[in-house]
Amino acid sequence: MKNKEPFGKELTKVQRVELDACTQCGECLKHCPVQQVTGRPEVSPPEKIRLFRKLIHETDSLKSKIFGEGDIDPKLFQDLTNALYECTVCGACGQSCPVGLFNQRLWPVLRKEMVKRGLGPIGPQANMQKVVQETGNPYNEAPEKRYSPWFPEGVKLVEKSEIAYYAGCTGAYCAQPMVRGDVLVMNKIGEPFTMLPPEDEVCCGFPLFITGQHDMLKDLTERLVNAYEERGVKTLVCSCPCCVNIMARDWPIFYGKELPFKIRHITQFVDDSLKSGRLKIKKGLKERVIYHDPCYLSRGVGIIEEPRSILKHIPDIELLEFDRHGVDSRCCGSGGAARKVFSDNAIAMGRLTIDEAVEKKADKLVLGCPACYEKVNEALEGHDKQIKIIDIMELVAGLI
Questions:
Q1: Domain containing 298 — which CATH number?
Q2: Are 300 and 241 in contact (CB under 8 A)?
Q3: pLDDT given for residue 66 in this prediction
């Protein structure tokens, strides 16, 4: 297979150094959730890096520049594609890496390289860009139904406000108790807030970013940023870790300058409200709860203490911890858009989370990510261990 451009063109200089820095030591294998449920080294982090380095050598080495690239074994492309897209892009491998590779940002760039060559994305992911273009969301759902039937009665939105709430596609269509809880809590805080009309609250771009499909990202970003700016927004609140991640890290890049508003995760907004007295949790909960750190919230943007602070505001509650938590949390299996293609992997990872929560004798498993909420609830079905699963804002909404 011949290529017009060398592999690695999309990589920054730092990322090229990171690829070279990998020593193939295998330390990351102890932390990779895909390895934990499959045991397949051919889809491991070191193997992805080894294959990609080989492709760079084949297409961008001194030899290839002098003599041409020649033919590259198609199996090499296929092996790398499979390894990249079975990954949940949780970032645990980079967190544990002795040389400090930032893999949560590296893997999407490598996926982008595969998309450029028509090798990715795979399975249902391949139609995502077309679906987002037609419906504004990656689930092919009707845009006018984005806020129904979950939007609570009695909650009043204002046309213009310094505070806006973004529900996100997965919350709106797949994890509705989460976004309903968000809106109920924000309403209880009492500060006026706005939302875009359902047809205008389009995808934040993360599903396309994470699968390497970047063509629409500038347009989606500008469309949303401009719409919020027109409403006078100074703080944009969102609960989806993936949305918050791309908003905070990548929207300024696609927008071309600093955003005209701040990005705040719902737990940051609510924790501030509890500490200032604008919100009070009136009811107690005499239960043991265990909180799971979403990968793109903890490792992604470093929001770890705020969810715990909120839970500790609940009278009589006992907060438990997973063995791996905070920046070291174990992926529940729903990340990287892999759950739509490798559902069995995602179910197995979700059940590991359920099993540990049950073993620690938790009464409730508290989640903070819509993808986790959707898939871990699916993993619970028919499983021999059972536990009540609830979103953190869903929990708080019932106690205020």
A1: 3.40.50.11810
A2: yes
A3: 46
Report yes or no on 42 lying in a domain. Answer: yes
Tens digit of pLDDT for each residue in 320-353? 999 999 999 999 998 888 888 999 999 999 999 9
Same domain, 294 and 241: no
Token digits of residue 359: 């073993």
The whole domain housing 36 covers: 13-120
The values of phi and psi at residue 390, to 5°, are -145, 145
Q: Looking at 239-381, which runs of residues are DSSP E strands?
A: 262-265, 288-291, 318-320, 364-367
More confident residue, 117 or 185: 185
Whether residue 4 is contained in a domain is answered as no
Q: Which residue has the tokens 């500038």?
A: 218
What percentage of the chain exceeds 70 in pLDDT? 96
Kindly list the distances between the CA atom of residue 304 and the CA atoms of 192, 300, 326, in Å, as whole numbers in the listed order. 27, 10, 6
Residue at a domain's end among 244, 271, 298: 271
Q: Residue 194 carries which DSSP code?
A: B
Asked if 167 and 232 sit in the same domain, the reply is yes
158 three-class SS = coil
